[in-house]
Amino acid sequence: MTNLSTFSSKLNVVVIGANGGLGKAFVKAFEADERVHSIYAFSRNTKRSTRKKTNFSSIDIEDEESIKQAANLSSSDKKIDLVIVATGILHREAIIKPEKSIAQIDPNIMSKVININAIGPILLAKHFLPKLRRDNKTVFAALSARVGSINDNRLGGWASYRASKAALNMLIKTAAIEQKNVSPQSIIISLHPGTVDTHLSEPFQRNVAKGSLFQANDAVHKLITVINALSINDTGGFLAWDGSSIEY
């Protein structure tokens, strides 16, 4: 059972990236929550289907028309309370790898990473924010990463990933400022889930300190607790899994 007591009852929830480790865990948590009335779960390679209160469908976050269709589908007969953006790319087989130095930057790969990690999420915001309810608390939460903090960068490396997450944080901040004027109860936020045992982190887990690698279900429980505690004063922020603020 998740804790979403600060939201209205019979929540309508959207999870983007529902086939990833964290996305699946979010869907599982929401399915078990009696306060959640419906879930729209989107991922790249998903055939449209329904299970319990969850509607599965495909989305391509590199295609704005696909995003627009997903937003319309999610809100065809209802307003949305909560959007989770759990998409992202750090590596892909032998093609995309985090750089060890700027000497390894490939502009094509960098463009791909920024497109998926920053442009895709803000296009999601563009089309999903107008679908949020106006009469109660709503949240649009995008999963970011601590390495996107400029102030926290002490090691260098991972240029494309760092830049993409820093860009995401700036875009989320910008969207939050604009959304205040449209829907004063909407909260737009970047969230750092910690290092989670998923495909994204798998090649780098040997460098994680003991006790600092979270299981997906545990990470999602922590993030939902943070989301429930959010107030309008947090909008535009960058928060970690424990609710602490991370400097941009």
What does this protein look like?
This protein is of the alpha/beta class. It has a single domain, classed as Rossmann fold (3-Layer(aba) Sandwich). It is 33% helix and 19% strand. The chain contains five helices and ten strands, in the order βαβββαβαβαβββαβ. It has helices spanning 21-31, 64-74, 107-128, 159-182, 216-229; strands spanning 11-16, 36-43, 49-51, 54-58, 82-85, 138-143, 186-192, 195-196, 213-214, 238-240. The strands form two sheets. Strands 3-4-2-1-5-6-7-10 form an eight-stranded mixed β-sheet, sandwiched between helices. It has a two-stranded parallel ribbon with strand order 8-9. Helix 2 packs parallel to helix 3 (107-128). The radius of gyration is 17 Å and the shape is globular. The two termini are 32 Å apart. The model has no long low-confidence stretch (mean pLDDT 91).
Task: Explain briefly what this protein structure is.
33% of the residues lie in helices and 19% in strands. It is of the alpha/beta class and 248 residues long.
Give structural attributes.
alpha/beta, about 250 residues, Rossmann fold, 10 strands, two-stranded parallel ribbon
Topology of helices and strands:
Elements: E1 11-16, H1 21-31, E2 36-43, E3 49-51, E4 54-58, H2 64-74, E5 82-85, H3 107-128, E6 138-143, H4 159-182, E7 186-192, E8 195-196, E9 213-214, H5 216-229, E10 238-240
Parallel strand pairs: 1-2, 1-5, 2-4, 5-6, 6-7, 7-10, 8-9
Antiparallel strand pairs: 3-4
